[in-house]
Amino acid sequence: MLLERLERIWEGRERHVRHTSYGRIRKLESRGNDLENSISLIVMSVLTKTCVSCKIEKEFVCFWNNKRNKDGKENRCVDCTRTFLSTKKESLKESQRKWREKNKERLRLEHQARRAKDPERDKAIKQKYREANKDKRTNYELVKKYGITLEEYNQMSAAQNNVCDICKEPETRRHQNGTLCRLAVDHDHFTGKVRGLLCWRCNSAMGSFEERNVPILNIEEYLEKHRTESE
């Protein structure tokens, strides 16, 4: 039976050998005796392909996988593909960027479909990315909101001995997962200029008074008034 099958493959090699899948070889190899193993080696030797770059006919193992091609392999051999990628890296990046720009809607719909198909997997991927890129994400948010980098934030925090610039106490507020929050970035709500780092209590109070344009002297007078009355 196997010999007849090999005969058919050998007779038709010029016609369909390029479209033969590795599944046939795996089935032959899984059966386990010497005759069948020798047959699988012969079939493997039949599976060859000519590289479009170097024009040399090589075994299938010399080509990377590519499901888009009918034979399941790249058109360039591994060596030629590596050379091509190293020389065309920048142009490839630019062409890929243009393609993504041109196909934004298609990519968005595909991404939505993947998320809807397996929401738990999508959630796990996002969580894994956040944990692996904490500093990158924090830096992006600081630059976007306040125009400072994470390195500049850390320098400001070190200059303040990692405590609030008003009450001189460390931050006590925690995230839902129990980790300690960073000191908040205090900025002028009208000019956007960063002034310092405050704990969440002082930052909330400053923001509330500033938005309502309450003079700080009024607050001092109010506190002083009730302090003298209590005495």
Structure description:
The chain folds into two domains: 84 residues, no CATH class; 83 residues, His-Me finger endonucleases (His-Me finger endonuclease fold). Helices cover 59% and strands 6% of the residues. Strands 1-2 form a two-stranded antiparallel ribbon. Strands 3-4 form a two-stranded antiparallel sheet. It contains twelve helices and four strands; from the N terminus they run H-H-H-H-E-E-H-H-H-H-H-H-E-E-H-H. Strand 3 and strand 4 form a beta hairpin. The chain is mostly helical and 231 residues long.
**Termini distance?**
108 Å
Kindly name the structural category: mainly alpha
Gross morphology: elongated
The domain count comes to: 2
Cα-based radius of gyration, to the nearest Å: 33 Å
Q: Percent helix among the residues? A: 55-70%
Give the beta-strand count. Answer: 4
Please describe the biggest sheet, giving its number of strands, its sense, and whether it closes into a barrel: 2 strands, antiparallel
Q: What kind of assembly state do the chains in view correspond to?
A: single chain
Order of helices and strands: HHHHEEHHHHHHEEHH
How many helices? 12
Strand content: 5-15%
Roughly what is the average pLDDT, rounded to an integer? 77
Low-confidence spans: 9-22
Widest sheet: strand order? 1-2
Question: How does the SSE layout of this entry go?
Answer:
Layout: H1 2-11, H2 13-16, H3 22-29, H4 34-46, E1 48-50, E2 57-59, H5 78-87, H6 89-102, H7 104-117, H8 119-132, H9 134-146, H10 150-159, E3 184-187, E4 194-198, H11 200-211, H12 216-230
